[in-house]
């Protein structure tokens, strides 16, 4: 007889999460969102909405308030992205040491405190203080968000782990940039906006700090789950071993390293365009700030809506194939459309704006073709799945650094040699396309046995020939091995679960 007790309201037992199909599961559990973490998911949405408020207004606002050239502001944003990159790794590794609850709290406090100091620095017109406080603020939201994804991983039942991670990204990208841009769109005029660098932008950024604080409080006091309060790493591992596990894996498994680089490239253009496009769309092409923000909402709302679709396509047609043709190739084409279509239509025209939004939505849609990378990464290192996912989340944060660094480098070089704004910005876009070309070459090496079956028998349309599951692998046949792979031997997927 089992001695565990069940809570219908929490969706857990004293021994762990309820298995899929348990009669005491809640409706949220059956939808794939762990009921016990529901306030964490909605808290994450609020936090990322707060983070996303500034995503499309910060560059022109800082240029106006600080009186600094755009290249200098881009360098400050690049520094911020470095701290985001570091914190994206620390969010997972520190959660293993201290438990995700504490790391989420630390991340939220860091963001709110340094958001206040950053806004004070802008009000004082201090370039140096603004750079320092914005850099330190960058440690905040990744620690909160990626500590929570660890909590999700240890709470969701294995049968629904991937779905739970999908819900995480719905909330994450739903806030940054989609709802964040919507909040900015309404808050700027409400606070008396009226142009770049105005009081409306300042008021919106103060509101952003309040949203982050509210989201943290909802998650901190709403989640009633003991697993997130304690150390997760094995007792025998030292702090240094836990903190360096993901880095060691990246240097010993070259396919994990390539997966890391592909994830870096994935959304780097998105964050680069956040820096470059606001001025182009709102000022240069004459559509105004409100229409730029509306365009951003449309583009990334499209991305959110199709994330689950491309996850299903990956399971049906093959993970690598989906990433290669929809994610990499499709995003490169979509990025070119988003840049060149607005310049091919009459500036300021309504129909030209609509076509430009459609072009942007094509990019946002096909960007979701990278979703199966979340299944590929842990499958590349089945004996070190946690460390592989830590590097995956690190790459997600690192994409901000790559995107902003490309813009900063090109802008500075362009200012030295006297390039026109259009030539400079076009060069940025083509560098991102070249990075997608590098990802196209690397993806062919990320073969995993589970995906080989999908690629062999899967069809994008029509009836599948065989079930594309691990059970379809013939146990009498040896597993396929990449002859170019020099990484350590992997665990047989017939005995290892995959996300």
Automatic annotation (TrEMBL):
Main location: membrane
InterPro entries xref list: MFS, MFS_dom, MFS_trans_sf, Polyol_permease-like, Sugar_transport-like
Extent of Low complexity compositional bias: 1-14
Transmembrane segments: 36-53, 73-91, 103-125, 131-154, 166-191, 203-223, 264-286, 292-313, 325-341, 353-377, 389-415, 427-446
A Pfam family assignment: MFS_1
Coiled-coil ranges (or none): none
Record's GO cellular component terms: plasma membrane
Regions of compositional bias (Polar residues) in chain numbering: 487-499
Positions of region (Disordered): 1-24, 470-499
Domain Major facilitator superfamily (MFS) profile: 36-452
GO molecular function, one term: transmembrane transporter activity
Membrane topology field: Multi-pass membrane protein
Keywords in alphabetical order: Membrane, Transmembrane, Transmembrane helix
Keyword Amino-acid biosynthesis found: no
Location(s) in or outside the cell: Cell membrane
Gene3D superfamilies: MFS general substrate transporter like domains (1.20.1250.20)
Top-rank taxon, per record: Bacteria
PANTHER family (UniProt xref): INTEGRAL MEMBRANE TRANSPORT PROTEIN-RELATED (PTHR23526), MAJOR FACILITATOR SUPERFAMILY (MFS) PROFILE DOMAIN-CONTAINING PROTEIN (PTHR23526:SF2)
Record-given protein name: MFS family permease
Species assigned in the record: Nesterenkonia xinjiangensis
Upper taxonomic lineage: Bacteria, Bacillati, Actinomycetota, Actinomycetes, Micrococcales
């Amino acid at each position: 007889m089992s001695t565990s007790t069940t809570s219908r309201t929490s969706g857990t037992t004293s021994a762990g999460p309820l298995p899929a199909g348990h009669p005491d599961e809640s409706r949220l559990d059956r939808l794939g969102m762990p009921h016990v973490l529901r306030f964490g998911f909605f808290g994450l949405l609020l936090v990322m909405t707060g983070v996303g408020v500034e995503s499309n207004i910060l560059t022109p606002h800082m240029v106006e308030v600080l009186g600094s050239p755009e290249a200098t502001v881009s360098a400050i944003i690049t520094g911020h992205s470095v701290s985001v990159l570091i914190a994206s790794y620390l969010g997972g590794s520190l959660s293993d040491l201290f438990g995700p609850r504490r790391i989420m709290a630390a991340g939220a406090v860091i963001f709110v405190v340094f958001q206040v100091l950053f806004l004070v620095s802008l009000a004082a017109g201090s370039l140096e203080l603004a750079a320092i406080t914005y850099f330190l603020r960058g440690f905040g939201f990744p620690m909160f968000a990626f500590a929570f994804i660890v909590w999700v991983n240890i709470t969701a039942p294995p049968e629904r782990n991937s779905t739970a991670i999908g819900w995480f990204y719905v909330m994450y990208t739903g806030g940054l940039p989609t709802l964040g841009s919507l909040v900015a769109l309404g808050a700027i005029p409400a606070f008396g906006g009226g142009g770049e660098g105005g009081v409306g932008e300042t008021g919106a950024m103060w509101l952003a700090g309040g949203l982050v604080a509210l989201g943290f409080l909802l998650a901190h006091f709403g989640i009633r789950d003991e697993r997130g309060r304690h150390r997760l790493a094995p007792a025998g591992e030292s702090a240094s071993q836990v903190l360096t596990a993901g880095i060691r894996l990246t240097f010993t498994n070259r396919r994990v390293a390539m997966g890391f680089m592909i994830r870096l490239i994935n959304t780097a253009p998105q964050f680069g365009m956040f820096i470059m496009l606001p001025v182009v769309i709102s000022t240069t092409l004459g559509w105004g700030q409100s229409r730029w923000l509306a365009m951003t909402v449309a583009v990334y709302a499209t991305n959110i809506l199709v994330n689950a679709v491309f996850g299903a396509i990956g399971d049906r047609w093959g993970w690598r194939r989906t990433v290669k043709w929809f994610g990499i190739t499709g995003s490169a084409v979509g990025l070119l459309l988003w840049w060149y279509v607005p310049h091919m239509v009459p500036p300021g025209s309504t129909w030209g704006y609509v076509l430009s939004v459609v072009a942007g939505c094509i990019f946002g849609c096909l960007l979701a073709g990278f979703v199966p990378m979340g299944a590929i990464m842990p499958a590349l290192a089945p004996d070190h799945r946690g460390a592989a996912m830590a590097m995956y989340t690190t790459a997600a944060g690192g994409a901000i650094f790559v995107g902003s660094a490309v813009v900063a480098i090109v802008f500075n070089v362009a200012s030295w040699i006297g390039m026109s704004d259009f030539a400079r910005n076009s060069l940025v876009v083509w560098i991102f396309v070249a990075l997608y070309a590098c990802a196209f070459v690397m993806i062919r090496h990320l073969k995993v046995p589970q995906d080989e079956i999908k690629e062999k028998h899967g069809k994008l349309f029509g009836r599948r020939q065989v079930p594309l599951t691990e059970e379809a692998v013939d146990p009498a046949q040896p597993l396929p091995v990449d002859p170019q792979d020099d990484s350590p031997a992997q665990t047989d997927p017939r005995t290892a679960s995959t996300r």
